[in-house]
């Protein structure tokens, strides 16, 4: 595990670029699959789903299980393999990462800061209300309001200290597990992508998904490189954020179907 941590630290900046690109490739394959389903639904005269129910359930379940496994490994209080890996990787990052990269990483990290997310979330909510997207506005508000209590509630439960870091670039206070930036970037940019998929023509969907995955990936990994969080903090943050996001998208899809039934068939939603 130490050799792996040393290799990651030595290639940290390369991985910062490559890992989001790999995630981008995976999301593009998922988009292609979803596009085929959309075209099939349209050809059969049906309204296509933005995200299929089984996909929502599968992603939510996997994310919840991943978070549970990491939380158990961190919360046992014993220095297990994951904790030792976190510690060695953070120490290697501290000594090997060039200081010249820190300002760029810090700037990218700001895109997941609470002030930025709250400001953009409020602006997006106003836009949805002005467009009379009532059910979508409600789901947007629920998913965004849930970020802070979700993140800080779990942080207070585990009370994990942050790794040693350069306070010139990381000014965050509070506990380390899970990463609030990873949670907020997964939830905010993920839900933003879902909303845009609902509102924009299909020709924009591929770009929307790519941008959301790339931004969320760069933000989360930047927190590891800045030594603001341990590796497991960020992975757990993504898992926690994805679990909450899929739950709220499931609610949004349910309300969308209800609105369609009332609009086109005059039937109540059950």
What key phrases describe this protein's structure?
270 residues; mainly alpha; 11 helices; 76% helix; 0% strand
Structure description:
The protein is mainly alpha-helical and 270 residues long. The protein has one domain. Helices cover 76% and strands 0% of the residues. It is built from eleven helices and no strands. Helix 6 packs antiparallel against helix 7 and helix 7 packs antiparallel against helix 11. The model has no long low-confidence stretch (mean pLDDT 84).
Number of strands: 0
Q: Please outline the major beta sheet.
A: none
- Count the domains: 1
Q: Can you count the helices?
A: 11
Q: Which range best describes the helical content: under 10%, 10-25%, 25-40%, 40-55%, 55-70% or over 70%? A: over 70%
By helix and strand content, what is the structural category?
mainly alpha
Beta-strand percent range: under 5%
Average pLDDT metric: 84
Write down the overall geometry.
elongated
Secondary-structure element order, N to C: HHHHHHHHHHH
C-alpha Rg, in Å? Answer: 20 Å
Low-confidence stretches: none
Q: How far apart are the first and last residues' alpha carbons, in Å?
A: 52 Å
List the helices and strands and how they pair.
Layout: H1 2-10, H2 12-43, H3 53-75, H4 81-96, H5 102-109, H6 114-130, H7 134-145, H8 147-158, H9 180-199, H10 205-225, H11 231-265
Helix pairs in contact: 1-4, 2-10, 3-11, 5-10, 6-7, 6-9, 7-9, 7-11, 8-9, 9-10, 9-11, 10-11
């Amino acid at each position: 595990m130490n050799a792996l941590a040393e290799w990651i630290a030595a290639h940290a900046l390369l991985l910062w670029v490559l890992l989001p690109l790999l995630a981008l490739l995976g999301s593009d394959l998922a988009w292609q699959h979803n596009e085929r389903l959309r075209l099939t639904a349209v050809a059969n005269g049906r309204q296509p789903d933005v995200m299929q129910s089984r996909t929502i359930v599968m992603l939510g379940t996997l994310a919840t299980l991943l978070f549970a496994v990491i939380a158990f490994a961190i919360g046992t209080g014993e220095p297990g393999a994951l904790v030792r890996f976190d510690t060695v990787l953070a120490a290697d990052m501290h000594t090997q990462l060039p200081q010249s990269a820190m300002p760029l990483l810090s700037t990218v990290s700001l895109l997941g800061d609470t002030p930025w997310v709250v400001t953009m979330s409020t602006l997006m909510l106003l836009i949805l209300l002005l467009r009379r997207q009532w059910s979508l506005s409600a789901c947007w508000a629920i998913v965004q309001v849930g970020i802070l209590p979700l993140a800080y509630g779990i942080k207070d439960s585990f009370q994990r200290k942050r790794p040693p870091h350069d306070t010139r670039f990381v000014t965050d206070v509070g506990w380390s597990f899970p990463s609030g930036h990873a949670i907020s970037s997964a939830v905010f940019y993920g839900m933003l992508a879902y909303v845009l998929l609902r509102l924009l023509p299909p020709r924009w969907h591929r770009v929307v998904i790519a941008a959301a995955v790339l931004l969320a990936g760069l933000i989360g990994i930047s927190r590891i490189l800045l030594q603001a969080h341990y590796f497991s903090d960020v992975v757990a943050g993504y898992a926690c954020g994805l679990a909450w996001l899929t739950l709220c998208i499931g609610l949004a899809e349910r309300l969308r179907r209800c609105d369609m039934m009332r609009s086109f068939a005059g039937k109540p939603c059950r």
